[in-house]
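If you are new to this repository, start here. Below is one unmodified record pulled from the training split, so you can see the exact layout before writing a loader.
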Amino acid sequence: MKASLALEDGTIFKGNSVGAAGEVIGEIVFNTGMTGYQEILTDPSYCGQIVTMTYPLIGNYGINTDDFESTKPHLKGFIVRELCESPSNWRSAETLDQYLKRYDIIAIEGIDTRALTKILRNKGTMNGIISTDVNFKVENKMKEIRGFSNINPVDKVTCQNVQHYKGDGLKVAVVDLGTKASIISSLTNRGCDVVVLPAKTSAEEILSLNTDGIVLSNGPGDPKDCTQEIQNIKGIINAEKPILGVCLGHQLVALANDLDTKRLKYGHRGCNHPVKDLEKDLTYITSQNHGHTIVESSLDKDLATITHVSMNDGTIEGIRYKNKPIFTVQFHPEASPGPRDTAYLFDEFLESLKIHKEGKRVAT
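And here is the target side for that same chain:
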């Protein structure tokens, strides 16, 4: 079956249908990872988006039962240059095409993804449509394409109920803004007792758990749309509770401290983004997935210190707040599918919890 991809600027690509038949409109973005398509499919941060893979061959190791970041895919559509129909991997349980069909995800293959990526880099991220309609005419859909907005995606991906992952170590609350399973496993693998909370859990409820620390997870969408979450974060900041913010959590902590954020032209998405740790004077390769960044000019140097910067465009990648036990990063230290260069940040966070806990004990 043939398929069409059309962008809001009128550009049209013709290719082959993959996954489900039908029509889907979303925000077209690109990911530069060579591997990790299974993690990308199930990363809640892609809610509302149609993801283009820049690496030309996708699906070559199939879909396994171990590498999911959530229970189902959250992206709206998928774009690849070439889909592998015969995967070869000892863990493969089904093909990518079978997986997409099972979850009714519309996708397209056989288009020039390099040309598409160059358009998005030059013009910026834009809305688009994938359609398997043989009579598809972009002019009939242009108003709908241009009118698409990714409304309240955090509400669509957050957990509905409290989840508890028991452990014998430090107790950590994870506010689920669209968390990847790897963030939770990064904590449980270190022995933590983890409580996962819905995104709109109030500050009072979070603090009543009396955890040793709080993680504000990754998630989708424009951080400025998360007004209730920002107010809740202001409440936990005032309680002097140790906090680690990741990706969207990083941006929401900034907004809660009256910093500003802005939309990037085409975002950072992939597992090959170099980031410099200014405190260690070392550069690491990181996994990233975001379309917004903190505005550096809004940062009061008396409030916080920039700890990490992007080596590609100089944007803020990490902040440590002064006189508060809080640090946040824009990238993903859990880094599934990899690399795991920055997993040390979880160790540093847990060490800060121990120090804070001991300090409270001494003060008491």
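Two things worth knowing about this chain: The chain has two domains: 2-149, 154-363. The CA atoms of residues 242 and 334 lie 19 Å apart.
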